[in-house]
Amino acid sequence: MHHILEPGPLLAEWCAEHGQPAWRARAIRRWLHGGRAESFADMSDLPRGLRADLAAAFTVWSTTVARHHRTEDGTEKLLLQLADGERIECVLLRDGQRRTVCISTQVGCAMGCVFCASGLDGVIRNLSAGEILEQVLRLARLLPGDERLSHVVVMGMGEPLANLDRLLPALAAVQEADGPGISARRITVSTVGLPKAIDRLTAANPGYHLAVSLHAPDDQLRTRLVPVNAAIGLADVMAAADRYWEASGRRLTYEYVLLGGINDSPRQARDLVTVLAGRAALVNVIPYNAVAGLPWKEPTTAAREGFLATLRDAGVNVQVRRRKGARIDAACGQLRRAAAGADSAEPSAASTIVHTIQPTSSTAASTAPRMPPSHPIQ
Length: 378
Ligand code: SF4
Description:
By secondary structure, this protein is an alpha/beta fold. It has eleven helices and 15 strands. The site of iron/sulfur cluster (SF4) has 14 residues, from loops.
C-alpha cells in the first residue's frame, strides 16, 4: 500500500497504468491537498470504481492521531503515531489572522540541545516527505471551512536541514496552488546551523525564511548548550548564514533561548551584538521557562530587560517571544515524552522551550516584521 501524499510521480504513473487521463492525478491531489478530502470516498466527482481501485492501492493517511490537545488561546497540538509506531508532534497556532503550522522533520533529534525534550533520546529516523506534508494537511483540516493556513514553520522535532532531501519536496507541495498554496516567503526553516546543509539550501534558492538557533555568543558556551557546535564552530555557522542572506536577500532570524545565569549577562549581550555586527538580523529572544528536573532557570526580569536593552541600544532588531500553548506542552518533544511516560490524559503545564513553536505576545522592535508565534514569518 503506497502513501498517496508522498510527493513524486507514483500517482501519475498509476493513473496512466489504469487508463486514466493525465489530469486525473492532479484532480486527486487537489482533493487531498486543497479540498480536505479524508478518503477516496469523499472524491465525489471520481467514478466509483476508480475510487475503489485507489483505495486498494493507496492509503491517504500514514499516521493516526494519538492525541489532540487544544487550549483556550486556540493553539492545537497533534501527537501523531506513525506507521512504525513512532510518534511525532505538530502544532496549529492562531495569532490574529495568522494560521501557522509548526511541523516536525525527524523522530527525535541528534543535535542534543541541552534544554530540548526532542533531543533527549537522540534521533530515531528521518520522516518521509509524505509524513512531513501530512502534518500540514492534518492541521489544515482542523480549521473551519472559511479559514486557510497562512504560514508554515519547520521547527518542530528534529533538525530540518538534516533531512533536507525529504523536506524540500514536502515544502514544494505545500506551495502548490491546488494545495495549501502557501508561498515560500511564508515558510520558515529553522536550524541549529549546519553549514553544508545551509549551503545546499542556498543553492536550491527556495526563498524560505531561515532562522538560526544561536543561544550563545561564543563557541565555548554554545558547545555546552548546543553540543553539535563542537564539530562546527560559530564562525562557520555565521558564514553559511551570511551566504544564505546574500543569495536570498532575506534577513535572517537568530534564535536565543535566554537561560537564567547561563547566557543572559551584559557581557554576553555585548558579545552577541559583536557577533551580529554588520548583519541584517532579527534576534528572537525566548526567555526560558523552568522545568522541574532540569537544571536551567528562567532569567530574572532585570537580567532579561538588561539583555534586551543592550541589544536594542546597539541597534539590533529584537523580538521577545512569549509562550502560547504551554498547557499543551507546545514546545517540541514535550507531548511525545509525556505520552510515552505517563500516558495520562491531561497535558502537563510544564514545557521546555526548544525549537520555538510558541507564539504571541511579543514586543517587537518597530522595524521588525510581524512575527508568528514562534518564528519570524514575512
Ligand atoms: S532544539 Fe531543535 S535542534 Fe536542538 S535538540 Fe531540539 S529539536 Fe533538535
